[in-house]
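User: I'm putting together notes for a lab meeting next week and I want to include a structural view of one of the chains we've been expressing. I don't have a solved structure, so I'd like a prediction I can at least talk through. The sequence is below, exactly as it appears in our construct file.
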Amino acid sequence: NAGLLEALHRRDDTFYVVSFSGDHLLVPALAHNNSLRPKMSLVLPALPFNTSSMDTATSSVTMMQIDCEVLDTRMVELNERDIPSHLRQTKPATSSSHHKNISTEEEPVRRSYRPYFLRNNFVDPYSHSPLQPGPRDRTTFP
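Assistant: Thanks for the context. Below is the predicted structure for the 142-residue chain, given as structure tokens.
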């Protein structure tokens, strides 16, 4: 989708991993050196190299690990219409068999995801207020 790629400021020499799901695991670094660029490792499902290995190890999952140095981080605002329809998060349909009192049902708490290496001048995507710096924040990249 052209709008999505434009919002990402797509570069021809760069791969992009875009997630529209909250189902991910962020494992923090155990030792982080503020004088170096932060490192990130993306681990994604992949097709196995050898299909016969699938028969012998049914409990294993083939993953691809991509190791990177982070050059920059920034918040990106996307128009919902630019997200492919099959990737948009939809609200679960309520079943008529569930009798919920809407007036007393609590709204889920939305917490903004904030990697530890974000610069201090970013804005919270939900409140549109500046994010408060944390103890691990980086202010510049070498």
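A couple of points you could mention at the meeting. Residues 1-48+59-72 form one domain. The radius of gyration is 20 Å.

User: Perfect, that's what I needed.
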